[in-house]
Amino acid sequence: MPTELVSAINWRSLTITLLLSKFYKMVLLNRVAKTLRLAVGVRKNMLHTSCRLNMPMVPIVIEQTGRGERAYDIYSRLLKERIICLMGSIDDDIASLVVAQLLFLQSESSKKPIHMYINSPGGSVTAGLGIYDTMQYVLPPIATWCVGQAASAASLLLAAGEPGMRHSLPNSRIMVHQPSGGVSGQATDIQIHAEEILYLKRTVNLLYAKHTNQALETIESAMERDRFMNPEQAKEFGLIDTVLEQPPLWSR
């Protein structure tokens, strides 16, 4: 066989081999990409399902207006009626939401009262003080309502409502205690954090004394350990003004 013909056949075989190699590589890459897309899709579905399972269901309220139907989630509809729900542990995220709602309602009206319903075990002292300062800063009177429990920082927010407008439902529980925290590290750092906790303790005690009209020594004694109260005891202590089973006439 002539040498030129042999060379041509070899080049053609090599070209076919390279083309087949590229083809199989593309097929393999496509299969890998498809597998990855499926895996990502399954993972996304798992995440979405997990989020739905972990998040509480929020009811939707449908209103009939002159322009047709309008849907609100229940908390937005309550906000329209100047009602804020502080539910769950108090952290920076919850504080941001409550502060934003207070500022918004003040911009809507500086005279109409705001109603804050509290069911919280407490939480971050600084987040609670952020809500407290905003409650004192805004102009509208704020009525507070304990529903379930108001413990730790939440009890301070309950007491910080407008005098005469601090309420509790009959089976709620109110608890006060001193701030707590923990830190590890060098002795100097531990001392710094201990001084900060003592500063917060004194600050919180002064605020309770202000809103309950109790002597500072009485507050310090009561706050030394967890002190649980029923609504009648909380009223006697000065944290609330009224124990209610029905809304007062002025709020209807």
From TrEMBL:
InterPro entries: ClpP (IPR001907), ClpP/crotonase-like_dom_sf (IPR029045), ClpP/TepA (IPR023562), ClpP_His_AS (IPR033135), ClpP_Ser_AS (IPR018215). GO terms for cellular component: endopeptidase Clp complex. GO terms for biological process: protein quality control for misfolded or incompletely synthesized proteins. Transmembrane segments: none annotated. It holds the Pfam family CLP_protease. Belongs to the peptidase S14 family. Clp cleaves peptides in various proteins in a process that requires ATP hydrolysis. Clp may be responsible for a fairly general and central housekeeping function rather than for the degradation of specific substrates. This is ATP-dependent Clp protease proteolytic subunit.
